[in-house]
Amino acid sequence: MLKKVILVVLGLVALFAVFVATRPAEFTIERTRVIEVPAATAFEYLRDFHNFAAWSPWDKLDSQMKRTFEGAERGVGAQYAWVGNDQVGEGRMTIIDEKPGERIDIKLEFLKPWPATSQATYLLTAQSPQSVEVTWRMTGHNDFMGKLMSVMMDMDEMVGGDFERGLEALGGQLKTRFANTAVAAEETKNADQAHDSPEAQEAKPAPAPTQPEAERL
Predict the structure, then answer these.
(1) What order of strands is seen across the sheet that includes strand 66-71?
(2) What is the tally of structural domains in the chain?
(3) Distance from C-alpha of 24 to C-alpha of 151, rounded to nearest angstrom
(4) Could you list the residue range(s) of the whole structural domain that residue 35 is in?
(5) Do the beta carbons of residue 136 and residue 163 sit within 8 Å?
(6) Is residue 5 in some structural domain?
(7) How far apart are CA 21 and CA 167, in angstroms?
(8) Is the peptide bond before 113 cis (omega within 30 degrees of 0)?
């Protein structure tokens, strides 16, 4: 009897393993949000990893997370690495390609709790001169562990939920930055116009006489 039970259990385990192995080998997770800032503003912000902590949905999970920046200051070659608690693990991101105002491709390497490599992409589609559609996409290959995880939990819902929260925070950061930039630009414009106005020109003091002129006086 015990032997039969063991054989049944082994058979079920084998069937489950076969089922897991037949799961999709590739995955894509993405979310999209329209943000009321110019595409160029979003592009310049996203290509600088120093801004990531301000809107990342994961950085708030570990207040003691260690971050390091290497390579280029921003854009292709820029690298961001993190080491944190069990919720965030350890990994790094490297910008490997970009198209100004349109897309940024990132190599995403997870080191802990288990090794995995994926690609993250920010796709930017201008909706108007003052708004952009931002798509946050992650693609990669599912090894057996990845396939098992996809069976045990809804990865699209879990990671997609993080993407949604991140994009919402990104929108807030971008709109605040763009508003501050616009106000500063308007103040500079108004100051320049006031400086060049006829009233300002008339109010300017006469230039001091040169040395020969002073002697004649």
Answers:
(1) 26-35, 131-141, 116-128, 103-112, 90-99, 78-83, 66-71
(2) 1
(3) 11
(4) 23-184
(5) yes
(6) no
(7) 33
(8) yes
The verdict on residue 17 lying in a domain is no
CA pair distance 163, 161, nearest whole angstrom:
5
pLDDT number for residue 125 = 98
Local confidence band at 21 (pLDDT 50, 70, 90 cut-offs): low
Q: Which residue has the tokens 């301000």?
A: 54
Tokens, residue 193: 């116009």
Q: Give residue 139's Cα distance to chain centre.
A: 15
- CB 113, CB 104: distance < 8 Å: no
Within a domain: 73: yes
Q: Give residue 113's pLDDT.
A: 85
DSSP 8-state secondary structure symbol assigned to residue 104: E
In a domain, 10, yes or no: no
pLDDT digits (tens, 9 = 90+) for 180-216: 765 555 555 554 555 565 665 666 666 665 555 545 5
Which amino acid, one-letter code, is at 8? Answer: V
Nearest in space to 20 (alpha carbons), one of 123, 113, 148, 107: 148
Evaluate if pTM is beyond 0.85.
Answer: no
CATH number for 37: 3.30.530.20
pLDDT tens column, 123-170: 999 999 999 999 999 998 766 565 556 555 657 777 899 999 999 999
The DSSP bridge pattern shows strands 116-128 and 131-141 to be antiparallel
